[in-house]
Amino acid sequence: VRGENAPLPPAADLAAYRVVQEALTNALKYAERARTEVVLDYRDEGLALEVVDEGPGTAHNGAGGRGLTGLAERVAVCGGTFSAGRRPSGGFAVRAWLPNIAAAP
User: Fold this and answer.
1) Read out DSSP for 61-102?
2) 104: confidence class by pLDDT, cuts 50, 70, 90
3) Following CA atoms 97, 42, 9, 82 in sequence, which dihedral angle do they give, to the nearest 10 degrees?
4) Which terminus in the chain has less CB density within 10 A, N or C?
5) In whole angstroms, what is the distance from residue 99 CA to residue 104 CA?
6) pLDDT by residue (tens digit) across 48-85?
7) What is the pTM of this model?
8) Residue 66 CB-density burial (10 A; 0-12 exposed, 13-18 middle, 19+ buried)
């Protein structure tokens, strides 16, 4: 955890929870027990979160299931951004930015 834990709007808070939940579930399924790290970076403008594993990556890449697609949609509804995919250095990364709409000028 980086920064001071600041409350997000309820929809963004739930989206953050779901992103971490789905990313950890996928890491358990596909990363072959590889080291996995969750980073929550609280900023005045919102929350940057990242779930990164050191597994082999996967040809699955989110295809077939609706989990990652659903997360992207959920994050977009909150005005945020979402990405998921293989990392060039190996493993898989899920990243999201969820703005704190209440903090916007």
Assistant:
1) TT-S-SHHHHHHHHHHHTT-EEEEEE-TTSSEEEEEEEE-GG
2) very low
3) 10
4) C
5) 8
6) 999 999 998 665 544 556 889 999 999 999 999 999 99
7) 0.86
8) exposed
Both tokens of 99, joined, read 């703005």
Encoding tokens for residue 52?
Answer: 């990164």
Q: What is the CA radius of gyration of the chain?
A: 14
Q: For residue 69, give the 3-state DSSP assignment.
A: helix
CA 93 to chain centre: 8
Torsion angle, CA of 48/100/18/63, rounded to 10 degrees?
A: -60
| Residues facing 49 on adjacent strands | 40, 96
Dist CA 67 CA 60 (whole Å): 12
The structure tokens listed for 13 are 């808070």
Using alpha carbons, list the distances in angstroms from residue 88 to 36, 62, 65, 75, 102. 16, 17, 23, 24, 36
